[in-house]
Amino acid sequence: MAGLLVFIEQRNGNLRKASLEALSEAKRLATGPGLPVSAVLVGNGIGAKVAELGKYGAGKVFVADEEKLARYSAEGYTAAVRAAVEKCGPTALFMAATALGRDLSGRVSARLGWGCLADVVKVQIEGGAVVATRPVYSGKALATADGAGKPVVVTLRPNVFPVGTGEGKAEIEPLPQVAGDIRAVVKEILAKEGGELDVAEADVIVSGGRGIKGPENFALIRELAKLLGAAVGASRAVVDAGWIDHAHQVGQTGKVVSPSLYIACGVSGAIQHLAGMSSSKLIVAINKDTEAPIFKVADYGIVGDLFQVVPAFIDEVRKLKAEA
Amino acid sequence: MKSCVLMAHVPDTASVIKVAGNRIDEADIKWIVSPYDEYALEEAIRLKEARGGAVTVLTYGPERAQQGLRECLARGADAAVHVKGGEGTFGDALAFARVLAAAIRKVGPFDIFFAGIKGVGSDNSLVGAMVAELLDVPHVAGVVKLEIGDGKLTAHREIEGGTEVVEAPVPCVVTAHKGLNEPRYPSLKGIMASKKVTIQNLAVVDLGLDEGALAGAEATCRWKALELPPAKSGGTILKGEEDPAAAARELARLLREQAKAI
């Protein structure tokens, strides 16, 4: 086996945590069989961040640094990643299943003629081949798949794999100018108002559902979220009702999340919502309906009126924080 | 503009999934047009209504997928193409993309392609970008707003914490996300009209491809096992109807001391 290559995503020169998770996981897998782990970093003026990657397990870092790659484009990035693949001939290419990774992976797979194991939550090496487990049918089943005996692209679900650090140093290898003509060009990036934490990136999420009764009551959800450093999530029902923007929606037609802690307030837990959050590490439900399906996936819960329970819970968390 | 919509026919999202070998047990499954493909189709129909042209829906799947094509016709598509097969290649997004791209070469050309950001089933979210690459056209994935001008389009796609505004020339593959539009329901007139449309049936071999090889020597992804997620049980559910403050205190304590989560 010829080693693992990990695509590292950066935004404004900052390495994305989900990419470091993918690199750390590659390093863990490679350690037993003694495989080399390389990384590929793409952008413009990104040199300063390269050295850091050694710590997370990259022995070598291929760097595609050119003006045309300053902003993400599937075409430009695909060319850069392919150049790195040609240099090191890996058995698998890992990347994080972020918005960018999910967009890039299809194009890269087709360019290389490799399969893709998308959005995986578990990955192993068996008999020299990468085998991965991924949720399918909206999380209602888990498929274990491989690349049918060929090299494969693997995208790893963010927040599932831990980041590991060591003492390693990475050797740097610049890639030639590869971007070529880019047809689909990012003209601008509109930041979300208020710079709120995105549910897809959050380690803690507090969600509101129909049980919060009206858009004004998201203030209560936001108060708890702020206290916990959490992102604000929402069910489809409240997004469709126009109470909050779609960017907050967790579930099938929203975002798939795997935070360490997911607190669902007044969310009944329709199957489409569970599809987006059931891989959370710890689920807490607050709902007045004992029969709400959310309690079936909850690790902890309170049956009660969220307008009484949540303010009381906020007070308790404040007390605990004051003690700490 | 002539547009082509890629459609995946998938289990109803409310279906109970049972496993049979490394596939689902299809016995009690109701099949639907994948929800994201509804946004894709709606956008293509709106484009036709605004600018003229025609909408062709294309699927690669077994016999039953024809029902999904009929539904798309009832909603306003003009033509439908059914490449029959997909049982052996199921789960292999690149095999699907190879078949779809070959079918497009045969029944095209088109000015623009639409697909859902993912088919709710194998949940790969890959086929749109793969087809674009195989056809050597650009793609924009997860689009929530689209404007089409002369020979180019401007699309908004959601990324973590913001929105990317992408410009691309057509032809281009656009994959639709929730928010792009509000899909219409089939009208009675549409349902009647759709019955008169003849669905064009193609076999994989008509496209110059060998489905046996795509599922065998040329396969790029193989499902080795399918299982249900481990059932979660034994959650600690507190009663908070009578004394919400006490329940909240206990929950905070458990999260701090037992789960070490706050």
Description:
- The complex is a heterodimer of chains A (324) and B (262).
- By secondary structure, chain A is α/β, with parallel strands linked by helices.
- Chain A has 2 domains: 4-174, Rossmann fold; 193-323, 3-Layer(aba) Sandwich (Rossmann fold).
- Helix content of chain A is 27%, strand content 28%.
- Chain A is built from 8 helices and 18 strands.
- In chain A, the strands form 4 sheets. Chain A has a 7-stranded parallel sheet, with helices on both faces. A 5-stranded parallel sheet of chain A has the order 15-14-16-17-18. In chain A, strands 8-9-10 form a 3-stranded antiparallel sheet, with no helix packed on it.
- The model of chain A has no long low-confidence stretch (mean pLDDT 93).
- Chain B is α/β, with parallel strands linked by helices and 262 residues long.
- Chain B folds into 2 domains: 2-215, Rossmann fold, CATH 3.40.50; 234-262, no CATH class.
- Chain B contains 7 helices and 15 strands.
- Chain B has helices spanning 35-51, 65-75, 93-107, 127-135, 188-195, 211-215, 244-258; strands at 2-6, 9-11, 19-20, 23-24, 31-33, 54-61, 79-84, 112-116, 139-148, 152-159, 162-169, 173-176, 200-203, 222-227, 236-239.
- Chain B has a 9-stranded mixed sheet, with helices on both faces. A two-stranded antiparallel sheet of chain B has the order 2-5.
- Chain B is globular and about 65 Å long.
- The model of chain B has no long low-confidence stretch (mean pLDDT 94).
- At the A-B interface, helix 2, helix 3, strand 7, strand 9 and strand 10 of A face helix 3, helix 4, strand 9, strand 10 and strand 11 of B.
- Strand 10 (141-146) of chain A pairs antiparallel with strand 14 (222-227) of chain B, so a sheet runs across the interface.
